[in-house]
Design goal:
heterodimer, A: 0% helix, B: mainly beta, 4-stranded antiparallel sheet, 11 strands
């Protein structure tokens, strides 16, 4: 079945760039998403990319999609302590959305 | 707008007890979902409702039942709680409707219910 995989942890220094990676298996994915979960809260959509795009930029966020390798990444420029959270990659191929297990981002001051 | 609300926020049950988790959304969304979140496993879909009056099983439906009471409300029931059901439960909603609906499926999540089954 479809699967979405992410590394469980990433640690960066404040002010550096963070790159969170994700791989997926569903070749019919049409939309890919990044959600953010802060402590004690539900997930909140950060950004999404349509599968016919290679890149999408939104302020400090840059999403890169390599459809051939089924690889998605989220780059956060000038990472701040407020960016500390769990980031989930997700994909929609049909009606169903599949979520990865999340990457916990630690930002060191 | 409150978005997606869930009650209760926390619950402790003994094995064998039953309870219903409530979820409501005020965004006039068609689709609603129940997920559980366990450490290292991300979100797993329990049940979903693509539109009022329909419900379908997700990845991990065993031990749960759901009711789509109306367009706003989607409840999750544990008939006989087990320790394996200790988890954080999230309700979500989406504007998309119907099986096979295509488009950006932004899901809006509630704050979660933390359930401990002893």
């Amino acid at each position: 079945g479809e699967d979405v995989e992410q590394s469980p942890f990433l640690s960066v220094r404040e002010g550096d760039s963070s790159v969170i990676n994700c791989t997926y298996t569903d070749s019919s994915s049409t939309y890919l998403y990044w959600y953010k979960q802060e402590p004690g809260a539900g997930l909140q959509l950060l950004t999404y990319i349509f599968s016919n795009m290679d890149m999408k930029q939104d302020q400090r966020l840059t999403v890169l999609l390599n459809k051939k390798d089924k690889h998605l990444s989220l780059r956060i420029a000038d990472t701040q302590t407020g960016d500390s959270a769990i980031y989930f990659c997700a994909e929609t191929g049909g009606f169903k959305t599949i979520f990865g297990a999340g990457t916990r981002l630690f930002v060191k001051a | 707008n409150a978005g997606v609300t869930q009650t209760p926020k926390f619950q402790v049950l003994k094995t064998g007890q039953s309870m219903t988790l409530q979820c409501a959304q005020d965004m006039n969304h068609n689709s609603m979902y129940w997920y559980r979140q366990d450490p290292g496993m991300g979100l797993r879909l329990i049940y979903y409702s693509a539109s009022e009056g329909t419900t379908d099983k997700g990845e991990v439906p065993n031990g749960y039942n759901v009711s789509r009471l109306n367009k706003r409300e989607f409840s999750l029931r544990l008939e006989s709680a087990a320790p394996s059901q200790t988890s954080v439960y999230f309700c979500a909603s989406s504007p998309l409707a119907g099986q096979g609906a295509r488009g950006v499926e932004t899901q809006y999540f509630g704050p979660g219910t933390r359930l401990l089954v002893l």
